[in-house]
Structures
1.
Amino acid sequence: MRTIKPRYTEAERKALLSNLVIQVDKREKNNNHILDFFEKHKIQYEERSLESGDYNFYIKQCSELGIMWDWWCDNLLVERKNSLDELANNLKEERFFNEIKRTVDMKHKFLIIENGSWEDILAHKYQSQYSEKAFFSQLIKLMTKYDFKIIFTKNTGFMIYQICRWILEQEILK
């Protein structure tokens, strides 16, 4: 059965975006550059404990647009790694993959990696002794078996906001 979705005018779309609040996991470390980006661009955020992932969002109640209570996005996972070394270490841990396995039913899953690229992995531009082949294999596994989108970026705050906007477009505004 198809869901009936309202059509929003451009002004209403902007109003919905102004009610977007990015959730930041309280345990997230070394993310001041991301929070600074949100503050500089007047993007609302709040820190809270998230069950999985580092970032998510919700739309605040906006009765004039038909949103009678806060709309929580429950099908998005944004996981951030601040370096290839952090990611390499996580890829070797069973705990990391146990968390990934719990997200199997989530529709949208993103892994954002700062300070690195596919080329950096090939050139072994990281401290870990994790081999390039094993590194690539695990990332390919994340993409194929667990349906993760992998994004290398230097502007993480912008990327997180754009992902949240895209999901809002897909889930509510489309």
Note: The chain has a mean pLDDT of 91.
2.
Amino acid sequence: MKREIETQLYKIAEDQAGYFSLTQAYELGLRRNQIYRELQRGKFERAGRGVYRFVQFPASRFEGIHIAVLSAGTRAVVGFQTALYVYELSDLIPDEIHLILPITSSRRRPGIRVHTNQLIPDDVTQFEGLPITTVDKTIIDCAFAHIDDDQIRIAIFQSLQRGMTSKQKLLGQACKRPTRVYELVNRFVGEVEL
């Protein structure tokens, strides 16, 4: 593998906790035999179907989520219960990985719940090398999706106590949703003293 391409691939992987997809490698001009050769040399290892990790990076505790995101394509974003789990704002471990994909994406993916919400750039951030909805967007999406009220209360309390979001951001997101969501969030935000 040429040094220039290796450096570019490493930079991509560095932003993704050491992971990269076969598609990303192909886009840089690598061919399957070159990837296989580097696997044999121990430069990176296979993490999942079509997903690899440079050996300098330890396996992420969210490896399954990284694999799902990279397999789903460059516009996949972690959201809903999976985002609460990644942010450690919920006691629940989701049965499926929740990803937000463009409407034109394939909807069938085993073990993945696909959502087709419209996202604006301000709704998305990076956390643990994952593209993920912001804390406030995540909590409001979960409230809209009828996640248990106690889980929403816990997420709001913990996110505010840890300085991960603000009351204003939560209420700003909530006002874009039905009255039920706004009233729920407003009640829980009011219970938190900072």
Note: Residues 149-161 form the longest helix (13 residues).
3.
Amino acid sequence: MGDSSSGRDTDPDVVDLAERKERILHTRVPDSLDRHIKRRARSLGMSVSTVVRNVLLTTFGLVEDIVNDSTDIALAATGQEPPPRRDRARARTATGNTAAEVLAWQEAVLNVNAVCDQCNGILQKGSRAGIGVREQPGTPAIICSQCLAGLSRSAGVAKARR
């Protein structure tokens, strides 16, 4: 469902993380929230703009996960089978969850502060993290060492079941 004349996707729900950040969003917030966001950005070593952008993208992903989990519970309560998680992981890729696009994870020592893409944990400069190796260029995927270990454990369980 793309617009062939511009090469852009016309689906309003798709968030292209590789897209150039050329839009500015203005909003009014209370002074206390402004101070809190600035303090948080300073403690993370990030710009206010980056923190706000990450919060917005993460919030949409969290809401979608809550809706999907609620749907699974409702389906299970009525005796119906929920759709496989893999299908939804691919669908969420377009809305900001980028883990489905990652081919592999490389462990690294961070040179800047970051936020885990999976658990939202704060990763401090100098800590170990997983950096996603992507098939296509895009925003770097970063996960904390605990989430990286969880991926390794779940892959080991899946391999043992075969």
Note: Residues 16-161 form one domain.
4.
Amino acid sequence: MEAGSVRQRRGAITQLSARINFREPEATQMSSQSAYIVAARRTAVGRIGGLHRNRRIEELCAPLVGAALQDSGLQSEAVDELIVGNATEGANPARLIALAAGLPETVPAATIDRQCGSGLDAILAAVRAVTLGDAQAIVAGGAEAISTAPWRVAKPRSLQQLPRFLSPEPGSGDEREGPAHIDSSEALAAQLGIGRADQDAYALRSHLKAEQARDAKRFVGEIFPLRSNAEEARDQSSVAPDFKDLAQLAPYLRPDGTLTPGNTSSLHDGAAMAVVVSKDVWASLGKPRGLRFLAHAARGVAPDNEASAPIEAMRALAQRFEGYSASNLGVIEMSETSAAQAIALARSLDIDEELLNPDGGALARGHPFGAASSVLVARLFNRLARGENKGSGLGVATLGVAGGMGLATLFEAV
């Protein structure tokens, strides 16, 4: 093409642009605003094949969405979107949940998968949309119905082999001795000198904390029973074991290993949903007690160091939020995959163990995979927004994510 023709075309485009009244995208015109969580509820966490064994994901979540909205004082017509974190269902289960919950058909729905961090990522997506002014009210959280989720089947390497079923956990199709998080937690325990007895003792304390919290009825208003019976109001695995029983369990890996089924968490079913709103909506509701989002950090580590990822995320959070320090926190909710991981976090960051999972962690209630991180937000809401916590109004939700990632999110009670 000749140079003169190119210049003529550019001139025509310039003239056309001058005649059109271009506007900046709305998001760039709007100033950022705070995002508030005005309600958060969760189901009881159940063992795979246990409490929620016959519930499809929409059956698990639809009543929870309704309960969270009722708590918030918002009608379903006020919801701009539903965002759900999930790691096992496939497709877009958020849309099924939205319709089953009775949200208007015009309400869009999206599903996010960052493995264990999926539920928190869904809530953060809602926070970002509200902060940018793209939405005023969003229901977001995580859901995992592993008991009824589709099975994963590995394609055979040749026509002479049969297909084989895979665990819901990523990386389970290779020839590993054990899951990646077990390997990395074992390595972290050896590195920091965290022995078997320390891990078993921590696991027992986690169960005892959960038992004390249940007896004190601190989960009332947090757990939404899907049916009117006692089983639906308590986490199915939170039954305190005997220390002698813990000590007799065989290690996962080698004979001198320290990680056992008693001091690690296992995959469970469960869901947790939160209602995220703008400052204007929060004010229109009468400024109810809730959580205000302050900061978030995500960090990756080498996959073999997966257990240390929450430590790096917490360090990144401290750098991101000016004035933040562990000594200023009122509570840290962590969905730990092992006692070794939780102990390592406390030791590495010089955290008072009393601040970490004061009502028990995933060791006691189970780890509902994609919903695990949104359960942490429901826990923070219960302790901070409802006034259960006696210390600072700052709280962090943190956990490791399969593949070597860590998430840490800071909230403030308002």
Note: DSSP finds 13 helices and twelve strands in the chain.
